[in-house]
Amino acid sequence: MTRREIISTGQTVHVDPLDRIPNYDPRRGDHLWIVTGVWRVDPEDWVSDDPTVEPLLDQENLISVAGPGCFYCERYYTPWLGRRRCQGEPR
């Protein structure tokens, strides 16, 4: 998978593929807190082989933001859950 760059309000963010997310370690029990965003995009910007075509993600096409939530156990953050060990895969 090729590495993408996302442009948002003049800031460039290097996006790594999802395989860079560490595997859950049951010995540590750490949550992996994430926040997800949803933007409306033009599919042509994402499938282009032209490296100069960069999708623009800014407030004008932002649809929603969700989180924080744990990537591993898929539960929303609460102060109570933040103090508990992550159980890993959802049950």
Would you mind describing this structure in some detail?
With 91 residues, the chain is mostly beta strands. The chain has one domain. The strands form 2 sheets. A two-stranded antiparallel ribbon has the order 1-2. Strands 3-4 form a two-stranded antiparallel sheet. The two termini are 31 Å apart.
Number of helices: 2
Taken from the alpha-carbon principal axes, the silhouette is: elongated
The end-to-end distance, rounded to whole angstroms, is 31 Å
Mean pLDDT across the residues is: 81
- Helix percent reads under 10%
Strand content: 25-35%
Total DSSP E strands: 4
Major beta-sheet overview: 2 strands, antiparallel
**Secondary-structure content class:** mainly beta
Number of domains: 1
Low-confidence spans:
none
Tell me the strand order in the biggest sheet: 1-2
What Rg is obtained from the alpha carbons, in whole angstroms? Answer: 16 Å
